[in-house]
Amino acid sequence: MHKAIHAQASREAAQDRTEDELTKLTATKLKAAAELVDDKIHETLIFYACSSQHWIKLETNDTKGRMLEVGEPACD
Q1: pLDDT of residue 35
Q2: Overall pTM > 0.70
């Protein structure tokens, strides 16, 4: 669900997708999860305020991916 929301090209599209996901969560009786998403989605969508030029500079927590980029050996 998180990837589906962030795969959208604009904040408006992401908000629309969020509404769809909230409907699905509510329909599958995951009301607590739907409430959590609804309460915190504004924090998640903040990166849309950055221009697309800055998106490539946003850092990731993917440690293994960063090690592969640098050429360091990754631990199993």
Answers
A1: 92
A2: no
